[in-house]
Amino acid sequence: MLSAFTARPIVELRARDKSKIESILAYGDRLLVGLNTGSLRVYRVNEIPEDKGEGNGTATATPDEGTVTNPAPKPVDLLREVEKFSTRSIEQLARIKEANVLISLSNYYVSIYDLQTYTLQEQLVKTKNATTFAVTSNIVKDSASGILEIISRLAVAVKRRLLLWSWHEAELESNVVEITLAESIRTLTWTSATKIICGMNSGYVIVDVLTQEIEDIVGPGAIGGAAGAQGGRFGSVGSTSMGYMGLGGYIPKPLATKLAEGEMLLTKDINSLFITSEGKPESKRQIPWQAAPDAIGYSYPYILALQPPSKGILEVRNPETLSLLQTITLPNASQMHFPPPNVSLAHAGKGFHVVSDRCIWGMGTTDYDTQVDELVEKGLYDEAISLLNMLEDALLRNKEERLRETKILKAQRLFDQRKYRDAIDIFLAEDVQAPPERVIRLYPPVIAGELSTFEEKSSEDEDAHENSEEANGDGAADDKQENTDPAKPAAISKLLKGHKKNASDAGSIRSFMKFDNNDGSDTSSVRPKQPEDSALEGKDLVNAALELNSFLVDARNRMKRWLDAETGKLVPQNTTGNGQNGRQGPSEASFESFLVAPASDAEKDREQKLKDTAKLIDTTLFRSYMLARPQLAGSLFRIPNFCDPDVVNEKLLESGRYNDLVDFFHGKKLHRPALELLKKFGTAEDSDEDSPLHGPQRTIGYLQNLPPEMIDLILEFAEWPLRADPKLGMEIFLADTENAETLPRDRVVKFLDNIDTGLAVRYLEHVINELNDLNPEFHNDLVSAYLKDLKERNDRDSEDWKDLMSRLVTFLRTSKQYYLNKAFQNIPKDDPGFYEAQAVVLSNLGQHKQALVIYVFKIKDFQKAEEYCNYVYLQSDPSTVQSTQASTTDSDDSVPSIYHTLLSLYLTPPPPHEPNWPPALELLSKHGSRLPASSTMNLIPDTLPISELESYFRGRIRSVNSVVNEVRIVAGLRKTEVVSAQASLLLGDGKPGGKGGRNRGVYVEKDRVCGVCHKRLGRSVIAVLPDNEVVHYGCLNRADKRPIGGGMESLRSPPRRS
């Protein structure tokens, strides 16, 4: 069994002393003992070196014998005995350090004593008939001021009532909070500074002492239940509890204790429930108690359970696996005392005390490193891993490396048990990352090669060994299991262990399952049925190889952090060093994880070591693929690798896997032979069409993976795929990959233009529209390519030609990088199909009138002319738009308007064109408010009837009215704002605790001081600030210069009433 704790008696009552120990309180080097006679004894605990001989974790001290084996030095010294401390038995003791007081429960009353003199300060009268209490001290932040303060609380159970007292900064408040529950309270346990768990006969409730909210704790399987209800697993009429009621009405006591990290444990009878500090059940199984514990507790990092005094057994359990790790015999022990969890660090409070009516034991903790070594030595890997995870780093030597080694040993045991998936998962874990050589050694030579340690075994020796194991029985098998070195390879371990019988109990806790026969939760350490044949072959070998593949792939990825697979050189550490915000770079530990033994300081050739390891990984992975999944071998060659060329070439040539041969060429950077092989099979007419090498697809994919530095080779072998399938071949240059985007674009444009202008247009559109290339040369090339393609085509009525023209116009309108003059010169002047393109270029040149002339007189599309004016108007400078809008009330016509230009072309066109009245009147109707009034009226001839201008005048009037109405609305809103400000000044903001108006009053007490000079106000003349602060009238000028957040903040709240 594990020796986690050792018991040492520190206080033993003499045989002639008829007193009995009822309660204790330990803090610092003081130990207070409450007796059944009402006396209080004060001891000083001395520092005594631990007895290294007590390593079995079992204490059998019997205080009645009165024998002392080691008289010096004494464990404790009696400093004082207060005989008249209480008239009755002292049932419970606690202290509130901040208030320097001692809390005692005696004679059904809770009393407060001075912690130094032990004199009675106050007996809490309201606690008559009290049965138990609980105290807590916490540092909380004040919600109003934000200042941290220490708040201590005392909770007392008086039948159904829960009474609460509070100490704020060591001062006891006069108000007492009283909360009534549905039934009598039996136990109290604080979960946080404001929440407490009350244990009752029917179950548990959690009470918020601030809001006085009561919430039932309900878990799976009807655990808990509503307060007052007598059902449920923790209730008094369950199937288990009914037996107690029939034997005299005994109801098990509800127990609760606080665990680490805000977790709580509730126990009633043999049932248990893990909850959070908020009272929410957790998805954990129950602790397999064999008997109902009399008390429970937590001492970092274990759960402790004390059996009834008749048994006198202290159980130590792992809170994660719930396994029973140790039992300590303590005769007649009835209670445990733990230091408060918030007093010190978790591991600093590991010392606790166990109490009987005649003796007090001080529990010492065995060194944590010794505990871990003991668990590993016994093969209890799950318990060792759980303990290592729970303990803090500072408490162990080299915690990470020990945890890693323990997990590797567990994985090797699982591999020996034919649990390949579970073993590889552990090998692959981020915190394990087992050395590849150590894992490969577990496999036979067909995979591991010369590295394998598998040994063949004759059938006669195997049968003899099997018969010997059967004759020795299960006990011999257990001994053999413990003595086998788990670090040995699978084959050797199996030869030593041989065939074993089935075992349903957990192997990691087999030695103490007599106390815990129903616990079978440690699934990863359960001893399964051993395979009859220890040889790894056939289906087992294939399954093991499949699992090995995932490990080797992960090892290859980790190798990239140290070794560049393409160059075979070490990765510079300064470029992949640790970063605070990013992912951490490779470390020394990650390098050593590739090696079975750490490299010595004298070894400087790390690069060669990593190359050898990489060669081992890749060659083993190739062998594993060829054995289990030959079709996956090609995936290894599509990436840089360190495979042994002799092994690879031999296997691929024998199997005729030419596709994989291409991938191998690519991985070794032999690109020209690979491309020539692809071209040979891709252009062959007699080749199989279903072959992956037939057609341009394979060549296109290969070229996409080549870097831009090999542009000559890419262009040389890209021509035949483009001519065979232009759409698919363009993926070489248009793919969404870094290689395609970083190719020399000028060379690609010239190459594509020589093959087909349409391909060059497609590539330039991709570069400009998707890659956002702002190079003017590419923009000019695209314009020239558009015009060249449009001029050469004869199908101007087709949709393709119109679509191409639309793309040209859109590009001319949106692009700002091409040369405008050069583009305007290249556009045909007298070709009607290019009129709109001319207008767009003229617009970009700022020649809006010439552009409108094309729309009005050449294209004769008045709708497009109006849309052009709208576009120019919206794209113009905001100041110009504002000036144009202001023209509705101002006669200033200095700012030109694009609408005025269009109107002048309608009404006063150049010869030989005639005035066009319909579009002019429509323009005046729609956009009259955007036209200068005086210049617009000058354009209208006197012969035009005024009725034709009705819509124009309506628009002008409506625009002017909108401006006037806007001014009126703003003036009204400002008047409302003034009235609101005046009301706030006279009446205040009307909020509780807010600023008051002039008609307000303040209450000045005799002890109130000025917030500026900090002197009493007395009968002096005062002044009241807008925030209701009161200062001397003479200090008013200095009131605004006082520091923010000064002493006046404490004067706002009324004084505390006693």
Automatic annotation (TrEMBL):
Extent of Low complexity compositional bias: 573-585
GO biological process: autophagy; endosomal vesicle fusion; intracellular protein transport
Polar residues compositional bias, start-end: 518-527
Stretches with biased composition (Acidic residues): 458-472
Pfam entry (one): Vps39_1
Cellular component GO terms, alphabetical: endomembrane system; fungal-type vacuole membrane
Highest rank taxon of the organism: Eukaryota
Name the record gives this protein: CNH domain-containing protein
Protein's cellular compartments: Endomembrane system
Entry annotated with the keyword Membrane: yes
Family, similarity comment: Belongs to the VAM6/VPS39 family.
Region (Disordered): 49-73, 454-487, 507-534, 569-588
Membrane topology, from the record: Peripheral membrane protein
Stretches assigned to coiled coil: none
Residue ranges constituting the CNH domain according to the UniProt record: 18-343
CHCR repeat coordinates: 736-897
Alphabetical list of InterPro entries matching this protein: Clathrin_H-chain/VPS_repeat, CNH_dom, Vam6/VPS39/TRAP1, VPS39/TGF_beta_rcpt-assoc_1, VPS39/TGFA1_Znf
Keywords: Membrane
Keyword Methyltransferase in record: no
